[in-house]
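Final report, closing paragraph on structural work. Over the funding period we assembled a curated collection of sequence-structure pairs, and we close with a single example.
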Amino acid sequence: ESLEEFRATINAELGLSGIAIDLLRTSIYSSSTIQPPTDGSEASSWQTECCICMEEYKEGDHITSLPCKHYFHSGACPR
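Its predicted structure, as stored:
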């Protein structure tokens, strides 16, 4: 099985399609891009790192946001 076929199988069974991922909102990260929740939950560690690759965001990183308000590096999710 090729890597592309494997990824297609994973996407079909576990997550969003590449088309759906492409439709998500993208932006450029800055310290004011992502606001912590106002209810106080997890505010101290709220989205300072990518929820996929677990690397800290840097100013100017391209990020993608999910409807649930989780963010990830735009290149961290295979299409």
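The chain has a mean pLDDT of 74. The two ends are 17 Å apart (CA to CA). We thank the funder for supporting this effort.
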